[in-house]
Amino acid sequence: MEIGREELTTEHTGTTIGGALLIAGTCMGAGMLALPIATGASGFFPAMFVNLVCWLFMLSTGLLFLEATLWMPDGANVISMSERFLGRAGKWLGGGFFLFLYYCLMVAYIAGGAPTVVESVRQLTGYQMGIGLGFVVFPLVLASILLVGAWFVDRINWILMSGLIISYFLLIGIGAQDVDPAFLLKKNWKLSLFAMPILFSAYGYHNIIPSISTYLRRSRSHLRLAIILGTTLPFVVFSIWQWLIIGSVPLENLEDAASQGVHASRLLSQVTGIPWVGHIVLFFGFFALTTSILGVSLSMIDFLGDGFKMGRKGFQRLALTLLVFVPPSILAFNYPGIFIEALGVAGGFGEAFLNGLLPIALVWVGRYHMKLEGRPLLFGGRSLLALLFVFTLFIMALEAIHLFG
Q1: In which domain, by residue range, is 102 found?
Q2: Count of domains observed in the chain
Q3: Which of 140, 388, 394, 397 has its CA 20 to 30 A from that of 162?
Q4: CATH number at residue 341
């Protein structure tokens, strides 16, 4: 789930736990549906290793982004931060990669959500909805919610997040008994590397840091702790989720799902064969996809509204909503199996730049060229920044090899 800044405007002081939960909620969404599919072929232990590495990386760059945020006036965003530290070229790169990342995510979520809606309707009512109709109904309902405004999105999101949490624990409780230790012992370390771009997408939360900074009144200690706690919770949730799927689904099913772009909840529904378990699985997938797409689309409406100097009400909001939903819906309809691929592209290029290269560059310029004051939030100095920079380029190269190799 991604959260737009408009949802966090409040005069009340937030709590560290509240900030941590907002960060965790931003991470836990549709990205986790792709994780076991992306990591399953490598085996459980290689999956846990890359999960750990990507968590630590995204935790580190989140602290760097926070450091840069605290050098800016309250309310500054990616565009203004990029322009201050990196000039006009940085401003355009930041804006361009923002659009690239979020359109990729919209394509992925619609491609994954429409078939889930079709299957849910079939199981619950017996009505055979055509897949084409699913690609119309799913984005149309979500766009209608966005048209009402952020306050309505916030209330709907609370309901959906509650459903996501309940269905997650039900699945873990029910599915734990089906985990086969033999499935967990298979290993292919080489394949685990290509799952890293998907993990980048799953751990993306940096866009909410400026809002969390306002929410916690720019307290360095509270913000640092909120990021550490807020990313640790998804790490635990993702680890248990991958343990469940990799340990209970045969390897050949995971490989077929990866090639067809099927997400984990649909796969688990097919494997169980138990109708009521299948219902829980589909609800979990629906909640994860819907919470994610509502937050991403809200962020895009705010971003495009600022870029085009348009209001957020009436016909102008309608135009922005159409601009957010129509292009990705058309692309997802024409490439229905693009869910996993689009998340990989989003993580390997969009997240790698915005949540990897950009925070590193901002802090490098701020610390070592502008000589800005403030105790560093991440240890390691130049050496660690250089290591993180090289690792980010490595992830981008992996995704390029996967796409064009």
Answers
A1: 5-404
A2: 1
A3: 140
A4: 1.20.1740.10
